[in-house]
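Friendly challenge for the regulars: who can give me the structure tokens for this chain first? No prize, just bragging rights.
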Amino acid sequence: MRIIIAITGASGSVYGWRILEKLRDREGVERHLILSRSGERTAHLEMGKSAADFRKLATCSYSVDDIGCRLASGSFPVDAMIVAPCSIHTMSAIAHGISSNLIVRAADVSLKERRRLVLMVRESPLHLGHLRSMTALAEMGAVIAPPAPAFYFQPQTVAEIVEHSVDRALALAGIASPDARSWEGKP
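First reply, four minutes later:
Bragging rights claimed.
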């Protein structure tokens, strides 16, 4: 299985980090990383991690400026793409087909090839333009999955809250986590 993990400059670089960590431990999953320059800066500010730290978790990594690489072509088979976190800037560019960098181009390819595209959009509040872009993306087949905490399993730490959102994004991308917690309802 091949999955693209893109990390933008929105707050929440821990989501991309945990996705890479979880997939690293899965046999047969290639992790193709695209880290934006803003994503690098945010990861350093939020986690003290460098781009090199993120690249160590990936099978392959690509420059955000390399729009001529294999991820920019529909002929390179990929099973899914997750943008985690996804900035409003990136989301809007994807919605309007503005392929100015590899993250947006790879997402555009995912949409045109009818592949799974999961966007962990990190913004609040949202104005009408954001909502219209989200609607357009949903109509094109993308899954808009803001990392929203679930409290039904009574998380005790921020890490548990992050883990739940990561597991949901992976499931939406077609890679269920065997240890994911789900709503069981009342007995």
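Helices lie at 13-24, 37-47, 51-56, 88-95, 102-112, 128-140, 158-172. The beta strands are 2-7, 30-35, 60-62, 80-86, 116-121, 143-144. Your move, everyone else.
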